[in-house]
Specification:
By secondary structure, this protein is an alpha+beta fold. 22% of the residues lie in helices and 34% in strands. The protein has five helices and eleven strands, in the order H-H-E-E-H-H-E-E-E-E-E-E-E-E-H-E. Strands 1, 2, 5, 6, 8 and 9 form a six-stranded mixed beta sheet that branches. A five-stranded antiparallel beta sheet has the order 4-3-7-11-10, with no helix packed on it. A hairpin with a 2-residue loop joins strand 5 and strand 6. The chain starts with a helix and ends in a 5-residue tail after the last strand.
């Protein structure tokens, strides 16, 4: 089945389908969230006066990648075109889900423009999606606290920065801003709850934020 066709449905349905597929092969994982994993790389871009957007790279786990690419024409002559069509479908579908990215200035959400330069590559057993997410308008640097979170609200998918350098400020922005990452600290009760959820349970969009990292950006704008 061609993945670009499957993506006409809700983006989150992909990961539910992956989880159900896994159940066909193993009884392990028949309960508990998450069911899919994404390692992220993020560069926050800007200069001495503004933040302009986010450069993203998302690497999917091997099983999710296999499902994504199943049925695609990956012959040497058609692979590049197939992967680009797939990337275009994913990017189009994520427009209704805020690109799973939530950016706040002093607690108020900051709006995005449409993502640009979406591409998908296959690196051995894994697929990696890259794109640029510009802000709707450049955000003027101030002393207001900025927060960035990237997550699947339902927590079917675990999305994380796997290392300290997986999220960075652009070289220009780093001259005026400091970045820190706060790891999620779910309670034992919350952990027990997600471990008890079957893969076909109803969506609970309050889960994802409980298990996601939060990037904190503090800036001192240029006076020039």
């Amino acid at each position: 089945m061609n993945f670009s066709v499957r993506l006409t449905g809700n983006y989150f349905d992909l990961f539910r389908k992956v989880a159900l597929m896994l159940l066909a092969f193993t009884s392990i994982g028949s309960v508990a969230h998450p069911h899919s994993w994404v390692d992220m790389q993020t560069e926050i871009q800007g200069d001495g006066k503004h933040i302009t957007g986010f450069k993203m790279s998302w690497e999917f786990d091997a099983m999710t990648s296999a499902y994504m690419l199943d049925g695609e024409d990956l012959s040497s002559e058609n692979k590049a075109e197939s992967l680009q069509l797939l990337a275009d479908s994913i990017m189009q579908n994520m427009t209704t889900n805020h690109y799973l990215t939530y950016f706040y200035e002093a607690g108020m959400p900051v709006k995005y423009a449409l993502a640009e330069n979406g591409s998908l590559v296959q690196d051995k057993l894994k697929a990696r999606l890259a794109f640029y997410l510009p802000l709707k308008k450049p955000l003027i640097l101030s002393n207001k606290i900025l927060k960035l979170l990237i997550y699947d609200p339902s927590y079917y998918v675990d999305m994380s920065w796997p290392a300290k350098n997986a999220i960075q400020l652009s070289s220009k922005l780093a001259q005026y801003c400091r970045l820190s990452v706060i790891d999620a600290k779910p309670t034992s009760e919350q952990l027990a709850y997600v471990m008890s959820l079957p893969v076909d349970s109803s969506r609970d969009d309050a889960l994802g934020e409980l298990f996601t990292q939060t990037a904190i950006i503090n800036c001192q704008p240029s006076q020039i």
